[in-house]
Amino acid sequence: MMVSFFDQFASPLYLGIPLIAIAITLPWVLYPTPSSRWINNRLITVQGWLINRFTNQLMLPLNMGGHKWALLLVSLMIFLITINMLGLLPYTFTPTTQLSLNMGFAVPLWLATVIIGMRNQPPVALGHLLPEGTPIPLIPVLIIIETISLFIRPLALGVRLTANLTAGHLLIQLIATAVFVLLPMMPTVAILTATVLFLLTLLEVAVAMIQAYVFVLLLSLYLQENV
């Protein structure tokens, strides 16, 4: 039976129950919990250092009002990185290849930044729809264009994350299939292809981390405009 390459992105079922909920909650079990000891182990120390560095970098352009989002944004980035990295393991399912899940993250958080801007500083929030110094005949057109670009932001967040991870998984599966097909016929070519597969896997590890960082970074930039 011919299996489609896109079958790996279908949510797995067990007794008719979708297992995506388990795939989403599993990463939280893997995180080391801080202890009450004065001296922590190396893993918790490195984890704390990385989180502090990322938090400082993320909150640097924001004022004090935006610092309330630090816990939410850092937790979201760690969660996305963990899901993306676990999805690179064999026989696993990557929930972030589902556009519905990514939109579920992007739309509420983007909408929260817009609501905060409209509540705290309505003139500034509405001023983003019309650049300063715009000629009068272009004002209606630019308002429409900026409004469309504003509503496209959450869609761009979700599609960017979904497309990058889906493309990487498909490419890995295609090259891995080529390795198994070429191995009995042309071992030398298969070894070279396997080398390319190894390098691509390293690239996908970087993409898994970078895409989670970009997702949260863009949210922080949207927040910066409204606080």
Automatic annotation (TrEMBL):
Catalytic activities: H(+)(in) = H(+)(out)
GO molecular function, one term: proton-transporting ATP synthase activity, rotational mechanism
Annotated InterPro entries: ATP_synth_F0_asu (IPR000568), ATP_synth_F0_asu_AS (IPR023011), ATP_synth_F0_asu_bact/mt (IPR045083), F0_ATP_A_sf (IPR035908)
Transmembrane segments: 12-31, 69-89, 101-118, 138-159, 171-199, 205-223
Membrane topology listed for this record: Multi-pass membrane protein
Compartments, record wording: Mitochondrion inner membrane
Protein name: ATP synthase subunit a
Organism: Tor putitora
Gene: ATPase6
